[in-house]
Specification:
Length: about 240
């Protein structure tokens, strides 16, 4: 008889699923604005301190896991470039435009990852589709490996999810750059945040309708197929 001790067998919580994404993206971005707006640090100091987490994550991936952490690496590169710009910039409009560098760099990274056949946004979307369920995880692996009837359609939707986010973030970057040089500076300071939030909402709605929703339905169907092919597993569950 096997005992279930500690957290063994526990389904991942929402925090477990979102953890890597929060650490790689939300924490560096949030800390930048916290240091700059709440603590009154200079742009240079805020960028420097917000670079600590992505730098540690990138170094840890190289040393411990022998691979690069894509999102953490992108954020680190953006912060380093922004730090260099801070040395030479005295133009407030250029500083506003610089804030869009994160969106543009991540967007390009996402689109390149799709072209390379490794859609970057899958890591953030998968937990919401799989829901920590072992049967759904198995079905996911069959679908992405090409072993399932719907594998081609599933992988197409997977790529579409990342493409949507790449294009949305790229569009957000363009809008914010145009606004930085056409809208009054005082207005653009708060309008930039509105544009960013609007882009996030559009990204969630469009990517959900075009990709995540259909993928979840295909995954549920594949789970049913797996249980029909292995009824003893379904009975045991």
């Amino acid at each position: 008889m096997t005992k279930n001790t500690g957290n063994q067998g526990r389904k991942p919580s929402v925090l477990d699923n979102l953890g890597p994404l929060l650490i790689d993206v939300a924490l560096p971005l949030g800390s930048y604005y916290l240091f700059k707006d709440a603590f009154g640090m200079s742009t240079f100091a805020a960028l420097a301190w917000s670079s600590v987490v992505p730098a540690v994550r990138t170094a840890w991936g190289l040393v411990r896991e022998r691979r690069t952490n894509a999102l953490a690496g992108l954020i680190l590169v953006v912060n380093v470039v922004s730090l260099l710009l801070s040395f030479v910039s005295g133009d407030p409009r250029l500083m506003l435009a610089k804030d869009s560098a994160v969106s543009s760099t991540v967007a390009i990274g996402i689109l390149v990852s799709v072209r390379l056949g490794r859609p970057m946004m899958t890591a953030g979307m998968k937990p919401f589709v799989v829901k920590g369920d072992a049967a759904r995880e198995t079905a996911w692996q069959r679908l992405v490996s090409g072993a399932a009837a719907e594998s081609v359609a599933f992988r197409s939707r997977e790529r579409a999810f990342s493409v949507v986010w790449g294009l949305v973030l790229l569009a957000e970057c363009v809008v914010r750059v145009v606004g930085a040089y056409t809208v009054p500076v005082d207005t653009m300071v708060w309008l930039g945040s509105v544009v960013m939030v609007a882009a996030m909402v559009i990204g969630f709605v469009v990517s959900g309708g075009l990709a995540a929703g259909p993928m979840e339905r295909m995954l549920s169907a594949e789970v049913a197929v797996g249980r029909a092919e292995r009824p003893e597993v379904a009975v045991a569950a």
